[in-house]
Amino acid sequence: MMSERSGGRDGVELRQMKYFVAVAEELHFGRAAERLYIGQPAVSQQVRRLEREFGVTLFDRSKRAVRLTEAGRALLPHARAMLAAERAAAETMDVVRGEQQSTVRIGTSVGLGLRLDGVLTALSEQAPWLLVELVSGPTTTRLQQVRDGYLHATFVRGADRAPGLELLPLWRDELVAALPAGHPLAERDRVDLADLAGLPLRIASRESNPYLVDVVVDACRAAGFEPAMGPAFTTDQDTLAAIAAGRPSWTVYFASQAAVQPVHRIAFRPFADPARAPSLPTYLATRPGPPSRRLTALLQACNQQAEQPTRQPAY
């Protein structure tokens, strides 16, 4: 693995470049320290050492804001390139050492269901040398873990931008309605969105999943009604049990998840008008630059899965 010392200047360390990039992207020393899982004094100290080494000021610091100076903006792309080169060197050395297997760490998004199963199946067939480690967590956390190099990539839904990362479009995930199996609407093969106007909608809070909430609420408004919000979606088990046994209500599920979701007294129904049915795009977030061998294998598996139609849940 590449030494912590860079090859250009004896006093410059990769660690300092890593801290500099974190502060440059966060524009806040405290958030950069949290991202790096170290104390803020250590970040400040290493950045000051980097400034002394180069003889320039990299950040304008004030009580209200931290901004890159002209020198900082000039250094940033080179610092990112150094960190990318270190990661590439480490992966190359894995191959040189003749390791039989390598690990790819992938961040997962809730509700991938059959989509994720298809990607993992393709990976096992096309790259049997690759071990897969799945990591869950909030979207913002997973995106930061990709920036930091802990994750090689993460699935994300709905987000159309992620500073410092590339978002590669994969597929659109269709949503279906989850209803009490005994409700009259469940007797139909498909459900008109407007017919759900009288039922409370159980969905995640907007703070926790703004993309999902916005796309469902917008679809309801396009169908001519403002959804009546019921209790927030908590867990699959508790929410589906409440829908099945309590006051009639509904929620949405990704079709790929509904197809494998074990349920009792719940009916999953697609929406009658596919053109107006709510759906969300899914992306693979990666660091910029040429993909590594393991990331190339993951991208190929994702592209193969993207060509497959979404399997609807069995009724």
UniProtKB/TrEMBL annotation:
Residues 12-69 form the HTH lysR-type domain. Keywords: DNA-binding, Transcription, Transcription regulation. Pfam families: HTH_1 (PF00126), LysR_substrate (PF03466). It comes from the Bacteria. The keyword S-adenosyl-L-methionine does not apply. Belongs to the LysR transcriptional regulatory family. PANTHER family: HCA OPERON TRANSCRIPTIONAL ACTIVATOR HCAR (PTHR30346:SF0), TRANSCRIPTIONAL DUAL REGULATOR HCAR-RELATED (PTHR30346). This is LysR family transcriptional regulator. It comes from Streptomyces rubradiris (Streptomyces achromogenes subsp. rubradiris). The lineage of its organism: Bacteria, Bacillati, Actinomycetota, Actinomycetes, Kitasatosporales.
